[in-house]
UniProtKB/TrEMBL annotation:
<dbReference type="InterPro" id="IPR000595">
    <property type="entry name" value="cNMP-bd_dom"/>
</dbReference>
<dbReference type="InterPro" id="IPR052706">
    <property type="entry name" value="Membrane-Transporter-like"/>
</dbReference>
<dbReference type="GO" id="GO:0016020">
    <property type="term" value="C:membrane"/>
</dbReference>
<feature type="transmembrane region" description="Helical">
    <location>
        <begin position="142"/>
        <end position="161"/>
    </location>
</feature>
<dbReference type="InterPro" id="IPR018490">
    <property type="entry name" value="cNMP-bd_dom_sf"/>
</dbReference>
<feature type="transmembrane region" description="Helical">
    <location>
        <begin position="343"/>
        <end position="362"/>
    </location>
</feature>
<dbReference type="InterPro" id="IPR036513">
    <property type="entry name" value="STAS_dom_sf"/>
</dbReference>
<dbReference type="InterPro" id="IPR018488">
    <property type="entry name" value="cNMP-bd_CS"/>
</dbReference>
<dbReference type="InterPro" id="IPR002645">
    <property type="entry name" value="STAS_dom"/>
</dbReference>
<dbReference type="Pfam" id="PF00027">
    <property type="entry name" value="cNMP_binding"/>
</dbReference>
<protein>
    <recommendedName>
        <fullName>Cyclic nucleotide-binding protein</fullName>
    </recommendedName>
</protein>
<dbReference type="Pfam" id="PF01740">
    <property type="entry name" value="STAS"/>
</dbReference>
<dbReference type="InterPro" id="IPR014710">
    <property type="entry name" value="RmlC-like_jellyroll"/>
</dbReference>
<feature type="transmembrane region" description="Helical">
    <location>
        <begin position="21"/>
        <end position="44"/>
    </location>
</feature>
<keyword id="KW-0472">Membrane</keyword>
<feature type="transmembrane region" description="Helical">
    <location>
        <begin position="408"/>
        <end position="439"/>
    </location>
</feature>
<feature type="domain" description="STAS">
    <location>
        <begin position="477"/>
        <end position="580"/>
    </location>
</feature>
Length: 743
């Protein structure tokens, strides 16, 4: 696939040439900086070798990318933060050798970064080959950011002595113990270069700031050296690179294998390699995504990892440092005309020319200026951390603020552990903290909303008197709507919330309709909650347990079958709420009273009729009885009677478009009417009506009404008015349910 630049033009080889060469110029300071860092524990004498290694690695990576022709352009650069990880390995080995009394020659120690880089490369290749690129996305961003910032901190601590011009081999601690003093000339030169780049860096878009800083600092040093004894000005970068270090590392590896340190260092080599592989892979994938946005291309995660792994393998054979894709330098190349991986040929050739030609110049660069340039490139926190801080400064809700602060706390903890302890400790603690934070967040979010039965009612048609009772006493019913996963992390918190919520109430409805996953430990917690509520004489109803969700089976499999056997499981929330209201109304009416058959004359829909009118109606209406499950009305049929329900409950069902499945849309209880719609409009039945319990009602046909009209027209008027009153109540309840839904 060929990508083209943003303006859609492919400028051909000329564009690749200029883009590649300018990118090489910009990458150079990163190469120098990483070179200074990677072998730092071995002392200043190894700086030139480090720089050679960094050049070798970056050239190899660029040529490898060009040869592989991975498609969309991606320029590799060494990362100071990752070079610091390799340096840490060297430092650890020197410490071990000291403690164990071994002689550890540098030639042997140099094999350590080579091996770790090899492990990192193989790890990346493996991730790519197994197509596991996406798995890396599960490593939490705060942990990755913590690593990047932690390595920056390591570099800062490591380079500050050089910037301050402390005598070679002395660390910052020497300042306190009085064994080392700041060299004001060296520090002045370094600080000047840093300040210059800091202030002017962004105003010189055509040239890389650190390179200008290096040139300016070096010129100032040379000018001063004509007036003052150069020895006072501090040291310069040691010995120039004698060409490119092709494959010196195999000898060193052989030396290490025969050395007693090899066994001691093996775990650290593996750990460092894997950490490096993970961090570098994540950064490369993020960077590939950024390059895609720039070039409107699409990368293949696994192929990208294979390419990075291959490049790092070649680098390790050159004794080099790690490199990874960089959106910054990719952008530079694209801005200057590059648009495909062919530009990497020129990045490689440009750097090769520099490596061969820079030797004599390198010798003249003051060490403090070099350190200053390294420090300035790592001084900025990584982009993600900056973004979090920017967000925090804006007006935020309390919850978002807490979330941002938690993320930043993880970043700081991981960064400090990387700098002060060990990368593996940092990784483990960072992952553990992220899991805890995630669990807490899910625990908070599992409760979607909660309310009580006096504020929200089911869509059940009831008499006005019953509705009034529910308004007054519905607080005895608590509803908790849940969402997200119910698992060990969220269930305990849920149980606590539930116990607080149910305090002083008789029924708790848990609506699992929006829960996407219930895990076995979550079910155990629900079961304990159920048992506790049962002991206290309260009832737990489970809603949202419709067919096809597998939830009922899960409960049965976990031995939690009491809700099922006791009929406390409901397909939807409205059904559960209706059942809870029925129980409440039954209790308020004194046990079974509500289930007693209402006399037709007492039916609320006949309110306002005179005794004579009631007599007339009682003689006309026909008493009909249904058993549970009987289909009383059928959707679409053209009969037109109206029914006064005096005992039991019916449910209203609509047919789904396929005609097979039915959906329950509401229920109607004794004291209410149904079938009034067809009676009023003459349209076919709008829904099925099915008996939910033993049902008794009085049926009035359209002919009956016509006959009554002839005898006493005010009967119809009163009936219609009562139906209108009932409908008004229904609409008010629906409006409330809708506004609750928006809350
Ligand atoms: N959404 C609903 N909620 C409650 N009752 C309904 C609903 N839709 C229809 N009904 C009742 O179900 C009856 C079906 O027959 P009708 O259309 O004659 O009159 C209807 C109403 O009484």
């Amino acid at each position: 696939m060929r990508a083209s630049t943003r303006d859609g033009r492919d400028r051909g080889w000329a564009g690749e040439l200029t883009g590649g060469l300018v990118a090489a110029l910009f990458v150079m300071p990163a190469v120098l900086g990483c070179g200074v860092i990677v072998f730092a524990p071995l002392g200043a004498a190894f700086q030139s070798q480090g720089i050679q290694a960094a050049f070798g690695a970056t050239i190899a990576a660029a040529l490898f990318r060009w040869l592989m022709g991975a498609g969309s352009l991606h320029v590799n650069a060494p990362r100071a933060t990752q070079a610091a990880l390799l340096a840490g390995l060297l430092g650890q080995a020197m410490h071990l050798a000291d403690a164990g009394g071994f002689d550890a020659p540098a030639g042997v120690l140099l094999a350590l970064p080579v091996l770790a880089l090899g492990v990192a490369a193989l790890f990346q290749l493996l991730l790519g080959a197994l197509r596991l690129g996406d798995v890396l996305k599960f490593i939490p961003q705060p942990v990755v950011a913590g690593f990047v910032n932690g390595f920056a901190l390591v570099i800062l601590l490591q380079q500050l002595p050089n910037l301050l011009g402390l005598p070679e081999g002395t660390g910052l601690a020497a300042l306190w113990s009085g064994n080392g003093a700041v060299n004001p000339w060296a520090f002045g030169l370094g600080a000047l270069a840093v300040a210059g780049v800091w202030l002017l860096g962004d105003r010189l878009p055509g040239l890389p700031g650190p390179l200008i800083g290096l040139a300016a600092g070096t010129l100032a040093f040379q000018a001063l050296a004509t007036a003052i004894d150069p020895a006072l000005l501090g040291v310069t970068v040691k010995a120039p690179p004698p060409g490119l270090p092709f494959a010196p590392s195999l000898e060193a590896v052989a030396g290490l294998i025969n050395h007693p340190l090899s066994g001691l260092m093996l775990p650290s080599i593996l750990a460092t390699g894997v950490t490096l592989g993970i961090v570098s892979s994540i950064q490369s994938l993020l960077s590939a995504a950024a390059a895609d946005a720039l070039l409107r291309s699409r990368h293949d995660s696994s192929r990208e990892l294979m390419t990075q792994g291959g490049a790092n393998l070649v680098s390790s054979l050159l004794g080099g440092t790690v490199t990874g894709g960089s959106p910054l330098y990719t952008r530079v190349a694209v801005r200057n005309g590059a648009c495909s991986d062919r530009a990497n040929l020129f990045v490689g050739l440009g750097l090769l020319a520099a490596a061969l030609g820079l030797g004599p110049l390198m010798e003249r660069i003051p060490l403090s200026v070099m350190a200053g340039m390294v420090v300035i490139t790592v001084m900025r926190p990584d982009d993600w951390t900056l973004q979090m801080v920017t967000l925090l400064r804006r007006q935020q809700t309390r919850a978002t603020r807490i979330e941002l602060l938690q993320n930043l706390a993880i970043v700081v903890t991981v960064a400090l552990l990387v700098a002060m302890a060990d990368v593996l400790v940092a990784l483990a603690v960072g992952m553990a903290l992220s899991v805890v934070v995630y669990l807490r967040r899910s625990a908070v979010s599992v409760l979607r909303r909660s309310y009580t039965g006096d504020r929200v009612h089911s869509q059940t048609g009831r008499s006005a008197a019953d509705m009034e009772l529910l308004e007054r006493h519905g607080g005895a019913i608590a509803v908790m709507e849940l969402h997200g996963p119910v698992f060990f992390g969220s269930a305990e918190n849920l149980a606590r919330n539930a116990e607080a919520m149910v305090e002083g109430r008789e029924t708790l409805i848990l609506d699992l309709g929006r829960v996407n996953d219930v895990e076995s430990t979550g079910i155990l917690v629900l079961r304990r909650l159920d048992e506790r509520l049962a002991r206290e004489g309260r009832t737990l109803l489970l809603a949202g347990m419709g067919k096809g969700r597998g939830l009922r089976r899960m409960l049965r499999d976990m031995g939690f079958d009491r809700p099922e056997t006791e009929g406390r499981i409901h397909a939807d929330l409205d059904g559960a709420l209706a059942a809870a209201e029925d129980r409440l109304l039954a209790r308020l009416a004194g046990g079974e009273a509500v289930e007693d058959e209402l006399a037709l004359r007492d039916h609320p829909s006949l309110l306002g009729l005179t005794e004579a009118q009631l007599d007339l109606l009682s003689l006309t209406a026909r008493r009909v009885v249904f058993a549970p499950g009987d289909r009383i009305l059928r959707e679409g049929s053209t009969d037109n009677s109206q029914f006064f329900l005096v005992r039991g409950r019916v449910r209203v069902e609509k047919r789904a478009p396929d005609g097979e499945q039915t959906v329950r849309v509401g229920s109607i209880r004794s004291g209410a009417v149904f079938g009034e719609m067809a009676m009023l409009t003459g349209e076919p039945r709008s829904a099925d009506v099915v008996a939910d319990s033993p049902v008794v009602c009085y049926e009035l046909t359209a002919e009956d009404v016509a006959m009554l009209d002839g005898l006493d027209p005010s009967i119809s008027f009163l009936l219609l008015r009562n139906i209108a009153v009932e409908l008004t109540g229904k609409i008010a309840r629906m409006s409330r349910a809708v506004t609750m839904g928006d809350a």
